[in-house]
Design a protein that fits this description.
- By secondary structure, the protein is mostly beta strands.
- It is built from 3 helices and 56 strands.
- It has a domain of about 300 residues: 7 Propeller (Methylamine Dehydrogenase, Chain H), CATH 2.130.10.
- The protein has a 4-stranded antiparallel sheet with strand order 1-56-55-54, with no helix packed on it. The chain has a 4-stranded antiparallel sheet with strand order 2-3-4-5, with no helix packed on it.
- The longest helix is centred in the first third of the chain and has 6 residues.
């Protein structure tokens, strides 16, 4: 999403319904992935960070690790998340039994699970460890870890110690253990390194580079085998090689037949249960080999599929980047963690157990789970606002206006086909919607009607908010299609309008920079987001407010009062205490767009945004919060 498109879709934050009794609020559970100040992931579960590895000892004992510094566990019924266990990403997890699992990651992190808890182990290195493995099917014996700059570590059952380094200093990314002291290791180069129990040997895997117009087979990312005469290695260039006990050869399969139109992108991992059951993961692709042919396995989400593991032929887990999350196949049926919400633009709540979020559709929280609701319209929705949970409005592209009566959504007659961006109301017979092409709409309980704008106003309205039916504000950037005034300007200009219950008029400000979001606690306390700043109006004059370093792209504002205001933007939640703005939480990557927020009750705030899967983050009440 470009900056221009993002700002054009930014909604104003509606005043959510009144306070809710504290005993009604759902507490944050121990399985939630939360930041240090209580902001927790609601969707996607377990969190919006990328996942890098999956492994387990059986269908009711599966571990997942990744960028979130936590270890996620599946017990056959549901998932739970640990507390943060590492300073950085965890790259790999491997288990040889319900009471014996290992995980490795950045800064030399090694963790061990004894059936009750994960505990750190001394590695003796600060280098990133990319893979941990032991011999599959063997309950004891050494465990190995490989990582940056040729690092190889060995665990003898008591302690980890450096192992004789291979004859290269490249990063090592994959390892397959074929015996107590027999290894195959791959990494940044085109070499496959073998330790035969006495010394290292290297084999240059030469290939024509048929997948990427002359590229060599490396760098390799992973290696796995069912035996000494059946080993596979996968690489960044969509290369897949097989070792038959004598030589490495490029696996011949039809890229168009196996991969469709996507071609052969980077492969990330290889794993199997035997010579007739092998899987390869990559960008937008999961491949399976049945002993005769390779075929593409269709999965419900696209993105970087980083790892695969299964407990049997009918039980398969695939993990991936923040667009993929966790995919689980039982038999031929895939399940995904979290609803397919899609990108979310705005949120409104009547209470903690009745929350609506809109974007590519509508998702609703009923106190137990988020579900996708059916709507009678296609195209993105940009804003939602309601009087009660049985009287909710939503607006979006091409003049779409929807209404929810507590049972279903229906389409309302609209006097415009323009894109509608924001929505606010003071009651069931006083609702405002604004949008592109200088559109100002009002609903009086019977019908939507166009409102007259001041002469000469040509705006793509992006925000609307009011303290009452006679005190309503609307703002947005200039409509360049009508005026051309934005051409060649680095910063979009715009105007702010005020409605006094009778007519709209323009309000003079110190600058003309376009406003993209509005919220206030009353007639003399208005906050306005302008690109990377927040402006404040005290009823007499405007002042520019200083934001914390690194805060950018403020998209939405909402608060409980003049000394308790929140704002969201590019990966950050900001808080204003009546004196200064400070960073409240950075729970998502800075590339994750946070577009809207709303209060659902005392100390209960919901933030939405995200990209392909959408993001829902919630500050839940709890002890000390």
């Amino acid at each position: 999403m470009t900056w221009t498109r993002w700002f054009c879709l930014l909604p104003a934050i509606a005043t959510c319904s009144g306070p809710v009794a504290a005993q009604q609020l759902p507490p944050c559970g121990p399985a939630r992935v939360c930041g240090p100040r209580g902001w927790c992931w609601e969707h996607p579960w377990p969190h919006g960070e990328g996942l890098l590895s999956v492994g387990g000892s059986g269908p009711s004992d599966v571990f997942v690790v990744g960028e979130g510094r936590r270890i996620i566990h599946f017990d056959g019924h549901g998932w739970t998340a640990s507390a943060p266990l590492a300073a950085g990403a965890l790259w790999s997890v491997w288990s040889r039994g319900p009471n014996d699992a290992f995980a490795v990651g950045e800064q030399g992190t090694i963790l061990h699970y004894d059936g009750r808890s994960w505990r750190p182990m001394r590695s003796g290195t600060r280098r990133t460890l990319y893979r941990v493995r032991g011999q599959d099917g063997v309950k004891d014996g050494p465990v190995w870890a490989v990582g940056e700059e040729g690092t190889v570590l060995r665990f003898d059952g008591r302690r980890w110690s450096p192992f004789k380094a291979p004859p290269i200093g490249d990063d090592l990314r994959g390892i397959w253990v074929r015996g107590p002291n027999r290894l195959l290791v791959v990494g940044a180069g085109s070499l496959v390194l073998e330790y035969d129990g006495r010394r290292w040997r290297s084999t240059e895997v030469a290939g024509p580079g048929e997948f990427q117009g002359g590229h060599g087979p490396g760098p390799f990312e992973d290696v796995w085998g069912s035996g000494p005469k059946d080993v596979y290695a996968v690489g960044d260039h969509g290369t897949l090689y097989h070792f038959d006990g004598r030589v490495w050869t490029s696996v011949e399969f039809d890229p168009q037949g196996a991969l469709g139109d996507d071609g052969a992108g980077p492969f990330h991992s290889v794993w199997g249960r035997g010579p007739r059951d092998v899987y390869v993961t990559g960008f937008n692709v999961l491949l399976h080999y049945n002993g005769k042919n390779w075929r593409r396995v269709r999965v419900p989400r696209g993105g970087h599929l980083t790892a695969v593991w299964g407990s049997g032929p009918e039980d398969l887990f695939v993990v991936g980047d923040h667009e993929v999350g966790v995919l689980h196949r039982r038999g031929q049926t895939w399940t995904t963690e979290g609803s397919a919400a899609g990108p979310l633009e705005h949120v409104w709540a009547s209470g903690p157990n009745d929350i609506f979020a809109v974007g590519d559709g509508v998702v609703h929280f009923d106190g137990r789970s988020w579900t996708v609701q059916r709507v009678p319209a296609r195209g993105a929705l940009s804003a939602v606002w309601g009087v009660t949970g049985r009287d909710v409005f939503a607006v979006g592209k091409r003049g779409v206006i929807l209404h929810y009566d507590g049972r279903s959504w229906s389409k309302m007659a609209a006097p415009t086909g323009a894109d509608l961006a924001a929505l606010w109301g003071s009651g069931p017979r006083d609702v405002f919607a604004v949008g592109a092409g200088s559109v100002l709409l009002h609903y009086d309980g019977g019908a939507w009607r166009l409102m007259a704008r001041p002469p000469g106003v040509r705006l793509d309205f992006a925000a609307v908010w009011g303290s009452g039916p006679r005190d309503v504000y609307a703002a947005g950037p200039d409509d360049c299609r009508a005026t051309g005034v934005c051409r060649g300007q680095k910063t979009a200009q715009g105007q702010l309008l005020h409605y006094d219950g009778t007519r709209w008029s323009t309000i003079a400000r110190g600058d003309k920079e376009a406003i993209h979001a509005l919220w206030g606690s009353g007639p003399g306390d208005l906050f306005a987001a302008v690109r990377n700043r927040i402006m404040h109006f005290d009823g007499k004059r405007w002042t520019s407010m200083t934001l914390p370093k690194g805060a950018s792209g403020v998209a939405a504002i909402w608060g409980r009062g003049p000394r308790d205001v929140l704002a969201v933007g590019q990966g950050t939640v900001l808080h204003y205490d009546g004196h200064n703005w400070h960073t409240e939480e950075r729970i998502v990557h800075e590339y994750e767009l946070l577009n809207g927020l709303c209060g659902a009750g005392p100390k209960d705030v919901v933030v939405v945004g995200g990209q392909q899967r959408g993001a829902i983050i919630r500050h839940c009440p709890g002890p000390g919060r």
